[in-house]
Amino acid sequence: MAPFNKREIGYIKAIADVGGHTSYRDNTLNPSPTLNKLAAATSHDGKGKYAFVSIGNSPKVWTSGSTDTTHDIKTARPWFYSIPVYDVTVNTDETAVGIGERVTPECYLESVHARMRLIQELDVTDNFQSHQEYRMCVFRHKERQSDDPRFAQNFANPLYDMFVAGNNHKYGPLGYRQKADTNAGSNDYYGATDSNNDIQNMMCMMTNKEDYVFMKDVRFYLGKEYGGKHIYEDVLHWDHADPIATEATDLSHNDSNNKNYTWYIAFFCTTNGFGVADFPYIRFDTTTHVTSG
Questions:
Q1: Predicted TM-score of the model (pTM)
Q2: What's the pLDDT score for residue 211?
Q3: Parallel, antiparallel, or unpaired: how do β-strands 80-83 and 106-119 relate?
Q4: All residues at 6 or more sequence positions from 220 whose CB lies less than 8 Å from its CB, including other chains
């Protein structure tokens, strides 16, 4: 199905606006009465930690090796989280529709808004754990990715290629792939084998802007040696303004456009010593704004 033309977009906007139903779908990462620490993986050198969050359902990506087999990027990875921000169910009963539901398959995805708070413990007696350094990257692939292969144009795995090293290979926390084609045009992924997968390299390695679009790449420090600063807060906003027509719960499962709605948030952490870093507590809330008839 071709993307909507201007007339069709106007029609969907009219349906969304006339009924006047506004949906606010809220989600919380690891909802709990108390704050949770992010489960994190240990880096190749054993001295750092990392964790990932996908905005939207976790996509299908290539596995390691020379095959083109795909799997859910979260498979067997408790440190990879997903927030289903695009899951907005259809409820045609306007008398019983909830604030987080839409009333028609045709709708307008206005925006996704996210609020994040990281909290570092200060009552640490080990001087080598007195402060920690973080890197946070927010990015997406240039082509469309999805948890449903019918809507996916690309299956690149950022856990192997989100960075670019000086040896002209692309790297991630789990391994690397050669920049040049190595297997009849396939992008072969290899497990972590050298220092480029170590935490210090991933804290400063160049981002792979050939394949991905980076919204943020920030560094920050938390701990008692930085004036007692132990909280990092950030706001992320995606102003979509997209007409959508789908009966699927997941709004990204549509033929309305070829837009990539899958975003990744990667966290990397290291200490001022030689021990393994400890990830902070996190509060991460999102709001999806949709209008429908």
A1: 0.88
A2: 93
A3: unpaired
A4: 133, 134, 136, 232
